[in-house]
Design a protein that fits this description.
Blueprint lengths: L18 H14 L7 H5 L5 H12 L10 H14 L3 H6 L6 H18 L20 H9 L38 H7 L3 H11 L11 E4 L6 E4 L2 H10 L4 H17 L5 H15 L1
Antiparallel strand pairs: 1-2
The chain binds a DNA duplex (21 and 21 nucleotides) through helix 3, helix 6 and helix 7.
Keywords: DNA-binding, Nucleus, Repeat, Transcription, Transcription regulation
Pfam family, one: Myb_DNA-binding
InterPro entries: Homeodomain-like_sf (IPR009057), Myb_dom (IPR017930), Myb_TF_plants (IPR015495), SANT/Myb (IPR001005)
Length: 285
DNA sequence: AATAGAGTCAACCGCTGGCTG
DNA sequence: TCAGCCAGCGGTTGACTCTAT
């Protein structure tokens, strides 16, 4: 069993934040900076748990948070990033200045996944659905399904096929070498972690080294007329995949470079997009 | 105008992984 | 090496608002 909820202490406030609490939290962080969430509430004079304070600050009070509707550009970017990163909302949010992971997660669940479904695309895999989306249900029927969400009705509940994505975070390639806690990766780990040679073989198989220029190590994508180049370093990737621990940020840099290249591409660069995607997947696997 | 279903989103929960002693 | 602590993440919940009947 997990540890007791951090907010279970008697006397701590829960639920919506009051303006007074917001002010206290904001003033404290402005004076002392973020961090030390555990001790922050006491010092700030708040009857909240640290977790709650952190969440409130990160998702609502932070001064750099962008208010207002998500623009079509952001919309498009979220979809593209989701196709690459899956449900790693914090990573996606990191590419959208001023947007929070919670906001993007909510937006995805309430808008984008439905939109993709209606366009005949599986929001989980981003593949075209073989069958067109079912016609809109009668509202009365919908209501019954919605009600089935209620805990009391879990017996009758029709659980939609929603495969869970348990990919390791892109910067944590150590999953190849060190067994992850996540059970869903047991298979992958046992197949590639038995020796570093095997890992190396695996890397050589998934990364198209022939596309890297000798020395200059420029990974070229596209058809020449509309290609995007981004620099990469075979040895750095190998090092990170094999050794794993200290230099994770190098891979992060590589990944960052990849994303920059991705963001530069336009919708006309379909070939380019496909190659970028496959490269990203190879880094993520 | 009343009611109930549907949609939205802030907040909570439980888990993971990094860090430290 | 291990256990405990902590921050951060993604999934889920539920209160509130909107909309259709």
């Amino acid at each position: 069993m997990g540890r007791a909820p951090c907010c279970s202490k008697v006397g701590l406030h829960r639920g919506p934040w009051t303006p007074r609490e917001d002010t206290l939290l904001t003033k404290y962080i402005e004076a002392h900076g973020e961090g030390h969430w555990r001790s922050l509430p006491k010092k700030a004079g708040l009857l909240r748990c640290g977790k709650s304070c952190r969440l409130r600050w990160m998702n609502y009070l932070r001064p750099d948070i962008k208010r207002g509707n998500i623009t079509p550009d952001e919309d498009d970017l979220i979809i593209r990033l989701h196709s690459l990163l899956g449900n790693r909302w914090s990573l996606i949010a990191g590419r959208l200045p001023g947007r929070t992971d919670n906001e993007i997660k909510n937006y995805w669940n309430t808008h984008l996944s439905k939109r993709l479904m209606s366009e005949g695309t599986d929001p989980n895999t981003h593949q075209k659905l073989s069958q067109p989306p079912a016609p809109k249900e009668n509202k009365r029927k919908k209501k019954q399904n919605h009600k089935a969400k209620n805990k009391n009705n879990t017996e009758d509940r029709i659980v939609p096929e929603k495969p869970k994505v348990h990919l390791p975070k892109p910067t944590r390639v150590t999953s190849f070498v060190n067994l992850p806690r996540n059970d869903s990766f047991t298979t992958a780990s046992t197949t590639v972690s038995s020796s570093q040679d095997q890992v190396l073989d695996h890397v050589n198989n998934i990364i198209p080294w022939s596309d890297f220029k000798e020395g200059g190590v420029v990974f070229s994508v596209g058809d020449g007329s509309s290609s995007s180049d981004f620099e990469c370093d075979q040895s750095r990737i190998i090092l990170n995949v094999v050794a794993g621990d200290d230099d994770d940020h190098n891979l992060e840099n590589i990944y960052e470079e990849y994303l920059q290249a991705l963001l530069k591409t336009t919708d006309q660069d379909q070939n380019c997009q496909v190659e970028l995607d496959s490269f990203a997947e190879s880094l993520l696997i």
